[in-house]
Sequence to fold (589 residues):
Amino acid sequence: MSRLRAVLAGWATVLLLAGCGGLSLGGEVQPGLEVGSGKAPEIGFLPAGPVAGASQEGIVRGFLRAGAASDGAYENAREFLTSGASEAWNPDETIVLLAADSSTTARLLDPATVQVTARAAGTINASGRLTAAAPGATVSATFSLTSVGGQWRVDGMPRGFGRWIADQDVPRLVQPFAVHYVSASHRATVPDVRWFPLDRLATRLARAQLDPVPDHLLGAATTAVPAGARLLGDAVSVDVNGVVSVNLISSRLAPGQATRQNLWAQFLTTLTQDPTVTALELAIDGVPVDLDGVDGPVSSLDRVGFPAEQPVTSSTRPVVRRGSALAVFAPTASLQGQNRQAGTTPSYPAVPAEYTHLALSADGGELAAVDPSGDGVSRWRGTTRYEVPGFGADVGSPAYDRRGFLWVGGVGNDRADRLWVVDTRADPADASAAAARPLEASWLDGRVVLEARVAADGDRVVVLSTRADGSGVSLDLAGVVRGAGQRPERLSAPMHLGTGFTSAMALTWLDDRQVATVAAVGRAPARPVVVGVDGAVTPLPEAPGARLLATTGGERNLYVVTSAGRLLARSGVRWVDSGPASDLATAAG
Fold:
């Protein structure tokens, strides 16, 4: 798992730092700005403290620089503050990530007040949630100073001020990691990705693991951590062999071997993201949390009754459509070779061009597309077409999940329902069993779902929706709450991803942490964009006329279908024309 992800600030409207009095952001929308990349240095960094006779501006600048100390060594930073300001300052409050080309300016408003301004790429709140800023946006903060022994010192700063981190310092100071919960529908963990300072990382991750299931995963995931549990000494220890010892203080742990296994799985999966951690010891009130047949520190999930984490891959080949002809898509093959291969795949029917937004099931045994009227969906098994019983209008792009369900959005006949699933395990000729059934998701009331894509884990879904008039574009992540037979029944509360999109279309998961869409802000042309579940937004090179997206594995294998009927493939920092195509469908997940 990568320890670092480059973060590019996406397009957004002007961002306000909620709860941080004295801080403001503003600026024009421009192409994205990179705020962190590369491998973190192994050596520590401790900026100097204040020098005698420093000016008011120099003291504030020095404090901001000293906040970039590694290993949580903030003693020099605190020397720029009065004792009262030092006691009140929490470096882990709102962290501002500065843009790659930013330089900080300091202005003396009066002899005891300094205002600093810089270009921002995003903010991380105290819970580790990253919010991308508007490219070109600026952040400002005002500090008050007083004289202490003839030397200027900061005695006041904006409420909630943590640190400002320069672009080049991001990799060694703060990075994204997942806190893990337990799936409510199968034997697996579910990630919740946040950003954490790298000092005392194992302790930070262990503290975060004590948090309850976040709202956007409620019902889709559970936690075995007892409510109110805390860490003994508010910390964990890691010995020279990389064994981390977690000792919880708790009144009780729910009974049962499964609960103990879940607890182990959560802490093990989360804490071993720290590169210094190799294995885990777990206790509650000093008593080891024993598992049947397991002795000593645990280093792998399979020892605690969970399958080892494996990348989810599909053996089903993508399908490309040119007109009404379908062919297996082989990215490395020539178009002539793909056309010849089309003749050897009679199981794929001819899908008339007026049926749009092709979808492919996980096993490759079924296709779906939006009907020509835009008010229905058809499914193909072999050469037989089945109409999904009518459920509404303004149908969005259909998409399969890996558990045998077809997802499609639209507007219900009663104007209430907005998202449906079809059980494709049932006989498609059975009108009752194969009918589209609505999901409960009250937060979609009054909206039109353009597309809903389920992650490979089956526990999370990203939903792209707008208001009825096409405004108010929203990209949201939510948990999938399943009932009997794995049937999706409702969605958790949404967590918003990305900001400021004025238009968007197309949606695909790139991996378990990133999705891609085609989006625009303001009057700028739409372009492919990568949006992370951690809050990062990365604009990709422009692809004029982009209208569909599909990937054969990750961002580098992302393909675009244009309105001109061309298939574009990634090649470095540009798109290369790969021939004609009116659609490209990859297997679910």
Q: What stands out?
A: The mean pLDDT is 88. The two ends are 19 Å apart (CA to CA). The chain has seven helices and 44 strands. Residues 257-271 form the longest helix (15 residues).
